[in-house]
Amino acid sequence: MKFKNVASAIAAGCIALGMSTSAYAAELKWAHVYEIGSSYHKYAEWAAEEISNRTDGRVEIKVFPASSLGKEVEINEGLGIGAVDIIYTGPSFVERYYGPIAISDYPFIMRGYDHWQTYRDSDLFAELSDGYHDATGNQVIDLVYYGQRHVTSNKPILEPSDMEGLKIRVPNSPLMLMFPNAVGANPTPMAFSEVYLALQQGVVDAQENPLPTIQFKKFYEVQSDINLTGHILNSLLIIASDNALAQVGDDEAALREVLSEASTKISEEIYQSETDLIQWFRDEGINVNEVDRAPFQAAVEPLLTGDGVPYTMEHYERLQDL
C-alpha cells in the first residue's frame, strides 16, 4: 500500500511538473541594432507583449535593442548558433548567406512605397525567402519598410560630382558600396553604433539613412545638410531561426501573425514620418536640399544589370514588372 501511495505521489508530481513546464513553451531573444526610441524597438516590444497575451504566456520574448547583443553582422551569425532567436536585419546583410534576397536593397531598383508593398506580397519575395531558408535554416517572417536613404553632409550635394572623394559611412555590406562607388565617393564601412561619433569627430564626412533614422540617431546634430537623393529604398527582414520556431510548437501561427502585424504597423509609421520630417528638419535649421535624382540614377543603372550582382536577370525583370 505504501508503495502504491509513493507511486501515486510520484505520478502526480510528474503531472504537475509537466503542467508547469508546458506553461512556458519558449523564452526567445529578439536582437536588433536600433535605439529604444525607434519605431522598430517600440513595435518589437508591442509584439512581445501581444505574443505573450495570445499564447497565454507560453511564449515569452525579450527584446535587446541598440546592439546590446551584437552589431548587425554578429546578430546574423547569432541566429545560426542559437545566441539569438529573432532579429531585424537588412537584406544587404543577408546577401552573404543568400545573395538574391538582397535585390530589393539595390540602388534605384524600387520605384516607391507602392512598388515595395507589391514586392512584399509577391511570389518573388516568397521564393527568395524560401531560398534564404534553404541556405541558412532561418525563416523570413516578413518584410519591414525602412525608408528611402538620403545623404547627410556638411555641404549641399546636388549632383554626382558633389560626391567625388566624399568619405561617406556606409553599412558593412557589399551592396552598399555600389552607389558611392558609382558617383566617385569614398565609401567607409562602419557599424551603425559608431556613426554619430565618427561624424562628430570628422572621421567621415557624410552618411546615408532614411529620415526617421537620421532623426532618432540625431545625425542632424552633427551634419548641416540633408540631401534628398533617395538612392535606396531600404527594407528590414524579421527573421526567426528554425530552432526558435520549433520551440514555440503549436503557437507558431500566433507568433507569425503578430510579427506580421508589427511589420505593417512599423511600415505605415515610417512611411508617414518620411513626409512629416522634411518640415521638422527645416524647423530645426537643417538645410534639406531637393535633388534631381536622374543623374545619380544614370550613374548606377549600368551596374544593376552588370556582372557581380547576386540576383539573376529573371529576378530583376520580375521585380521591375511588379
Automatic annotation (TrEMBL):
Transmembrane segments: none annotated. It is found in: Periplasm. Pfam families: DctP. One of its GO terms (cellular component) is outer membrane-bounded periplasmic space. Coiled coil: none annotated. Gene3D superfamilies: Bacterial extracellular solute-binding protein, family 7. Belongs to the bacterial solute-binding protein 7 family. This is DctP family TRAP transporter solute-binding subunit.
